[in-house]
Amino acid sequence: MQDLVQKLQIYKSEIGEYTATDEPSVEAFRIKWLGSKGLVKTVMGAMKDVPVEQKKEAGQLLNDFKLFVEAKFSDLKEAATASSGGAEKARPDLSLPGDTIALGSRHPITLMRNKIISIFQRLGFAVAEGPEIEDDWHNFTALNMPAHHPARDMQDTFYVDAGSNSAVDWLLRTHTSNTQIRVMEKGVLPIRVICPGRVYRNETISARSHCFFHQVEGLYIDENVSFADLKQTLYFFVKEMYGGDVRVRFRPSYFPFTEPSAEMDVSCFICGGKGCNICKKTGWVEILGCGMIHPNVLQNCGIDPEKYTGFAFGMGVERPAMLKYGINDIRLFSENDVRFLRQFTSAT
Ligand code: DAH
Questions:
Q1: How far does the centroid of ligand 1 lie from the alpha carbon of residue 245, in Å?
Q2: Are 114 and 156 contained in the same domain?
Q3: pLDDT-based confidence at 20, cuts 50/70/90?
Q4: Aminoacyl-transfer RNA synthetases class-II family profile domain location, by residue (predicted)?
Q5: Mutation pick for ligand 1 pocket among 155, 195, 255 (CB with most ligand atoms within 8 Å)
Q6: How far is the CA of 323 from the centre of ligand 1 (A)?
Q7: In terms of C-beta density within 10 A (0-12 exposed, 13-18 middle, 19 or more buried), how is residue 98 classed?
Q8: Would residue 95 count as lying in a domain?
Q9: Which of 103, 173, 299, 332 has the smallest C-beta neighbourhood within 10 Å, fewest atoms?
Q10: Is the CB–ligand 1 distance for residue 314 below 6 Å?
């Protein structure tokens, strides 16, 4: 009995000093003391050698010892899980901010297109859309470009193979001017629309040009519409788009569907007109083509050119977007690289 008491004391002091901060050492403790061949079992086995009159006392001692080992084991286990972060993991920290969900962003072309649209909407222009796969009539002929007209060569066209039975030539529209024709053909006057959309040309892809890009077309038809109205409308647009300090100039130009025709330049908003790489040292940046709608075009759409006049204009979206956002390669717009697109999450 004396032996047993002594043994338990030695065991207890050994156990009392034992520390374990990781799970393997806690497991080692369990195996040594509480395992099926562990020391607790062994000392319990000593009961059979204890004389009957001491059995009660010895049983008490051994039970206390077993409880002592079990309590130590559970302390060790708790300490080890806490230090491995397990307890923290099991209990969520409600004070942490939630997981952020990545925000989508508008494409820079969409941003620029919406900006252009909203300026004209303030002047009462409605938005009209036309098809990207178009027939020859709406893209060329009705716009005063009959077959073999040399102006057709200004725009390299992608033709669509519609089979030999097709009565008309189908193509990918080369400009948004097709939508002018579609709106005019409806015959509801007066007309005041802008037509945003994607256009296609068979051009070599480079940093400056692509085989598809975007345009916004404008069209205004009513009685007594004059070139002065065209200029005022575009002055307003430029002021809203580029600020009040930007200067404007019109240069005579040629488009088959307008007469007279002009191209409009704005003073370079990068260098303020002093001359830089963007404006090729001229101080001016061309932004659109425009003119008074040719009487043949009105007639082609069933509108009486004696009664009605109108103006039209067409501008690209890529170039102003490149200038505004400092993008130097047009191909970035269509590569869908999220590292590029992500930069416009908070752009306006
Ligand atoms: N369609 C022309 C182009 O793609 C742009 C244009 C010029 C449109 C003059 C017009 C206009 O409506 O009046 O180059």
A1: 26
A2: yes
A3: confident
A4: 119-343
A5: 255
A6: 21
A7: exposed
A8: no
A9: 103
A10: yes
Quote the ligand 1 centre to 314 CA distance (angstroms): 4
**SS3 category, 284:** strand
**Does 129 share its domain with 240?**
yes
Interval between CA 36 and ligand 1 midpoint (Å):
91
pTM score of the predicted model? 0.72
Establish whether residue 196 lines the binding site of ligand 1, counting it when its CB lies within 6 angstroms of any ligand atom. no
| Radius of gyration of the chain from its Cα atoms, rounded to whole angstroms | 42
- Ligand 1: which of 180, 195, 311, 313 to mutate, judged by most atoms within 8 Å of the beta carbon? 313
278-305 pLDDT tens trace: 888 999 999 999 999 999 999 999 999 9
Domain containing 114 — which CATH number? 3.30.930.10
Tens digit of pLDDT for each residue in 70-119?
999 999 888 888 777 665 566 788 898 888 888 888 999 999 999 999 99
Going by the annotation, the residues of the binding site for Mg(2+) are: 259
* pLDDT at 137 > cutoff 90: yes
CA distance 100 to 127: 36
Residue 198 φ/ψ, nearest 5 degrees: -95, 140
Locus of tokens 């963007």 = 278
In the beta sheet, which residues pair with residue 82? none
Mean pLDDT score, 157-185? 93
Q: State if residue 255 touches ligand 1 by the CB under 6 angstroms criterion.
A: yes
Asked if residue 97 belongs to a domain, the reply is no
Query: Domain of 83?
Result: 2-90
Asked if pLDDT for residue 153 goes beyond 80, the answer is: no
Q: Which two tokens stand for residue 20?
A: 């374990």
DSSP string of 187-254, one letter each residue: --SSEEEEEEEEEE------SS--SEEEEEEEEEEETT--HHHHHHHHHHHHHHHH-TT--EEEEEEE
**Mean pLDDT, rounded, for 155-169:** 88
